Amino acid sequence: MADFVLAAARWAFPFLLILEGIFAGIVFEHYVLKRVTRGKSRFRESFFKAFNRMGIVWFTLAGVYAAVRSADIIPGIVISARILEILNKTILVVFVLSLSLVIARICGGGVRLYTRKTKGLEQSTSIFVSFLNVLIFVIGLMVILQSFGVSITPLLTALGIGGIAIALALQDTLSNLFAGFQIIASKKIRVGDYIKLDSGDEGHVTDITWRNTTIRSLPNNTVVLPNSRLANSIVTNYNIPEKEMSFLVQVGVSYGSDLEKVERATVDVAREIMKTVPGGVPGFEPFIRYHTFGDFSIGFTVIMRAKEFVDHYPLKHEFVKKLHARYIKEGIEIPFPIRTVRMQGGDVS
């Protein structure tokens, strides 16, 4: 019994150090970290959130390391060199992996904040975040291998040779990867933009990943487009240089119409639409331009302005309705298609 009590007393101090590390980690997480995280700065909040749950891990590791070191100097406690080596390397592996996770979180948060700042969007581009995560954990793995005495020089050489073979086998994948980087770096197509491709597909860009760009069309369908194909397409971006855009409505009136009266009535209706229909630009002064002596009508274009691309659909809808009613009231005729056929006299056999 006395031997058991003596052995328990010897091991009590190392275990106490481990418990102190766990307790210090809990205090750090729930009191210190939460307090410094609060603030008006988004960068500060994102930076300290990267350490979430890591305080407990690191303080526990510190407690375990201190317990192992103390066990070495306490009389009566014997730990073999092999076990000490395994414990020390386990502590190192866990620390390097947790540190890699923290760095990946900080870099990912920085990318997201930069994306929001430059685009004013809540969504972030995932391709850079994924690439940084892989790169950081690969570096962490190399540090771990180096600490275990594994030379990484032959590994880097093998990766270089193998990389050529992989590049040849994954040409399409790599072309999509680098096309994704080029798309993001050029800032011509961004998450949230409304684009139209030369293939006819159009919609809002919801994400740009390492392989594909995802577009949500107006019917709420998803179009998944390889980055390389997007980079080689002719793309109309309705959000560049700004979301606000002009749109055109084609109208035709009969040859017997008073064109001054037609212009006044049309502009009055367009001005009303700009002010009353959501999506219109109240400060914009609409105007018309006559352009064609058609087969049965004089054609002209009404120029109006919408806050963004999708707003022009309801604006056109309301404009056509109100313009039709106004023309009826003003006695302005919108003619039906007319063809005059003149037949020369003679027998038809």
Short account of what is shown:
The chain contains 10 helices and 8 strands.
Verbal overview:
- This protein is of the alpha+beta class and 349 residues long.
- The protein folds into 3 domains: 11-168; 173-237, SH3 type barrels, CATH 2.30.30.60; 245-330, Alpha-Beta Plaits (2-Layer Sandwich), CATH 3.30.70.100.
- 58% of the residues lie in helices and 14% in strands.
- It is built from 10 helices and 8 strands.
- The strands form 2 sheets. It has a 5-stranded antiparallel β-sheet with strand order 4-3-2-1-5. It has a 3-stranded antiparallel β-sheet with strand order 6-8-7.
- Helix 1 (2-37) packs antiparallel against helix 3 (54-73).
- It is elongated and about 120 Å long.
- The termini are far apart.
- Mean pLDDT is 79; it is low at 119-124.
Layout of helices and strands:
Elements: H1 2-37, H2 42-49, H3 54-73, H4 81-119, H5 126-147, H6 152-169, H7 171-186, E1 194-197, E2 202-208, E3 212-216, E4 222-226, H8 227-231, E5 235-237, E6 245-253, H9 259-276, E7 287-293, E8 298-306, H10 312-330
Antiparallel strand pairs: 1-2, 1-5, 2-3, 3-4, 6-8, 7-8
Percentage of β-strand residues: 5-15%
Number of domain modules:
3
Order of helices and strands: HHHHHHHEEEEHEEHEEH
> What is the radius of gyration?
35 Å
Shape verdict? elongated
Main sheet: strand order? 4-3-2-1-5
SS element count, helices: 10
Helix content: 55-70%
The number of strands is 8
| Most strands sheet | 5 strands, antiparallel
Average pLDDT reading: 79
Broad structural category: alpha+beta
